[in-house]
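By way of example, we now present a protein record of this kind:
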Amino acid sequence: MEFLRPTTLAEALALKAGRPGAVPIAGGTDVMVELNFDHRRPEALLDLTTVPELTGWSTSDGTVRLGAGVPYSRVITEVGESVPALAMASRTVGSPQIRNRGTVGGNLGAASPAGDTHPVLLALDARVEVASVRGTRLLAAEEFYVGVKRHALAPDELITAVHLPAHAGPQQFAKVGTRNAMVIAVCSFALSLRQGEVGAAIGSAAPTPRRAREAEDFLAAELPWTSSGPLPDSLKRRFGDLVAAAAAPIDDVRGSAAYRKHALGVLARRTLTWAWEEHRTGERACA
């Protein structure tokens, strides 16, 4: 296979247009595993590690634009104050070595239902910036995932950035794994409370990452937004039940479908407790 190494975004887009079958590689934490096990043998690899336009981030008009090549370790240290749930999810990815290499752009490109950052992007109404020689467009995160490990990119497009709201209110991420580190999620959940709106999304419990719409609508209507008191257990239980009902999990080596549904209900109740504590006190809980 050929190894293509552009040094600018324009060059990368031109190469992708001329070689649509070229597989982009940044951290390589997914692609190299597939190559090593001979699960994929592309005609070419398109190395994006030397494209500077992909490795920065900025904040403007209340929105964080995170370059697709920013590694998880930098998300944790540099973006965590603006988008805490994304930093929480990034902390759960692999090992320090993998966090130094892996990127949110790569997580999107793999489009695995178990990807750790996907529930956060959905819960925060993130937009995925993609580009080609034909121009740039923004996709709602909810429109990006179209099937198991399938995304909405055209063959000549590359992921260039993710757009997320900055300082968007209390938010949380939690996941269940078979051990504490270096683990693929059995299931995961992200929650966002902002300006009377709720974002709730699940991972590793359906063919694609997905939002729990009925749970969002219920919580937005029932939360006592102007209260400074704790939430009743009945409200948290109902929210957890609706989150679990939004899942469509399978039985596999990591866990049963029944366990995944149960665990999602528990994660939903816990993250709601933590997010509401921040909402009423202004202090982040269990970050």
